[in-house]
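// run 5 | inverse folding | seed 20
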C-alpha cells in the first residue's frame, strides 16, 4: 500500500499529527509506504520517527519547480500513491491530491475543495465559526474514515544521533551537565504577537527560577527569537541563566534540548508539543487562542490562561492593543506553576 500525507504547515500541528501517522502506519501494515508532503521548515520535526519512507518538500514560493504544486503532484504520481490524506484545509492541498492520481482522497470539505475529495468529512460548525477541536482529534478522524480503529492520542517524536551530539556540545559549553537541574524557557510564537508573553516577564521568571529553585535556566530560541533569548540572558544577570542565542540553531537541536531538560515553560508554540511528545513536564502560557484547538493530551502539562472579556479572540495581534490576556498573566502565577511542577517531579534542589 502506498500512501501520501499532506502534512500541516505549522511545527506544532505537525507534532499533533503524529498520532495520525502512527495510526496509518500500524493499520495499513508493515508493507505500507508513506510519503510525507511538507513545508521545508518542518522537515526536521519528524526526523528519527519510523513512519515516513519518503519526504517531498512543498513550497509554493520556491524557485525550484519540483517543490511547487505541479512538481509535487508529479512526484506523487511517479510514486503511484493509492491514498492521499489531506491534513491541511487548503484548496491547494486538494488540487495536489487530485493531480497525484490517488484513487482515495481523504480530507475535510473546506475552502471549496469538496469535489476534489472522494472520502470527506464536514467539520462541525459553532455559530458562524468552527467548533473548536484538538488538532490531534481533527487529524485522527481522517484516519478513522479510512478504516483505522480508535488509536492512542499521545504525541510522539524522536531525536537523531546528530541532534543529541549538538545538544551534548551545548550542555558542555554552558556547563549544564555538571550539576543541578535544567528549566528550559521557550519564548517564541510564529503565529503572531498575540501569543507572546512579555520579555520582561521572562527575565523576572528566569531570575526567580535561578534564585529560589537553584536550577539552571536555558532560554531556547529559533533564528527569529535569537535576539530575544540573548536579551533575557543579559538582563537576568544570573550565572545560572543561559541561552542558545550564540549557537547554530536547528529544530533537531531544539528537540534534543527539550528532551533532556527537566521542565519546559513555554508559549503556545511548536516546542510546547515537543515536551508532550517526550513526556517532559511543562507549563504552557496561552493567550489569544481557544485552548481546545491545541489540546495535546500531555498528562504533565499545566496550562495557564488569563480570562478576559474579549478573549479568546484568535487574532494574530491584539485588536485592542492592550494585550491583557498575556500582560495580566503575571510572573507570580507562572512561577507558582513552576514550583508545583518542581515538587511533583522532584526538580527542586536546596537553594
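// decoded
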Amino acid at each position: 500500500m502506498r500512501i501520501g500525507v499532506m502534512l500541516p504547515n505549522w511545527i506544532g500541528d505537525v507534532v499533533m499529527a503524529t498520532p495520525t501517522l502512527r495510526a496509518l502506519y500500524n493499520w495499513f501494515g508493515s508493507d505500507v509506504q508513506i510519503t510525507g508532503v511538507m513545508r521545508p521548515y518542518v522537515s526536521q520535526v519528524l526526523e528519527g520517527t519510523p513512519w515516513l519512507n519518503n519526504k517531498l518538500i512543498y513550497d509554493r514560493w520556491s524557485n525550484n519547480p519540483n517543490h511547487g504544486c505541479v512538481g509535487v503532484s508529479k512526484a506523487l504520481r511517479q510514486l503511484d500513491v493509492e491514498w492521499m490524506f489531506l491534513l491541511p484545509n487548503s484548496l491547494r492541498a486538494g488540487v495536489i491530491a487530485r493531480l497525484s492520481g490517488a484513487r482515495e482522497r481523504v480530507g475535510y470539505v473546506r475552502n471549496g475543495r469538496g469535489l476534489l475529495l472522494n472520502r470527506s468529512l464536514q467539520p462541525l460548525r459553532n455559530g458562524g465559526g468552527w467548533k473548536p477541536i484538538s488538532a490531534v482529534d481533527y487529524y485522527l478522524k481522517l484516519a478513522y474514515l479510512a478504516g483505522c480503529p480508535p488509536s492512542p492520542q499521545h504525541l510522539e517524536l524522536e531525536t537523531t544521533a546528530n541532534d543529541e551530539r549538538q545538544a551534548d556540545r551545548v550542555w558542555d559549553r554552558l556547563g549544564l551537565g555538571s550539576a543541578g537541574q535544567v528549566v528550559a524557557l521557550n519564548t517564541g510564537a510564529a503565529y503572531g504577537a498575540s501569543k507572546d508573553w512579555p520579555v520582561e516577564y521572562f527575565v523576572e521568571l528566569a531570575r526567580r527560577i535561578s534564585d529560589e529553585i537553584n536550577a539552571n535556566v536555558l532560554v531556547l530560541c529559533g533564528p527569529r527569537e535569537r535576539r530575544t533569548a540573548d536579551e533575557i540572558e543579559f538582563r537576568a544577570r544570573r550565572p545560572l541563566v543561559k541561552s542558545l542565542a550564540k549557537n547554530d540553531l536547528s529544530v533537531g537541536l531544539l528537540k534534543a534540548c527539550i528532551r533532556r531538560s527537566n521542565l519546559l515553560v513555554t508559549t503556545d508554540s511548536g516546542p510546547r508539543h515537543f515536551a508532550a511528545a517526550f513526556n517532559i513536564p511543562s507549563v504552557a502560557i496561552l493567550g489569544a487562542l481557544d485552548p481546545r484547538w491545541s489540546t495535546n493530551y500531555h498528562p504533565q502539562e499545566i496550562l495557564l490562561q488569563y480570562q478576559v472579556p474579549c478573549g479568546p479572540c484568535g487574532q494574530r495581534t491584539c485588536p485592542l492593543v492592550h494585550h491583557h490576556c498575556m500582560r495580566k498573566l503575571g510572573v507570580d502565577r507562572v512561577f507558582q506553576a513552576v514550583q508545583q511542577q518542581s515538587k511533583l517531579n522532584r526538580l527542586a534542589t536546596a537553594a
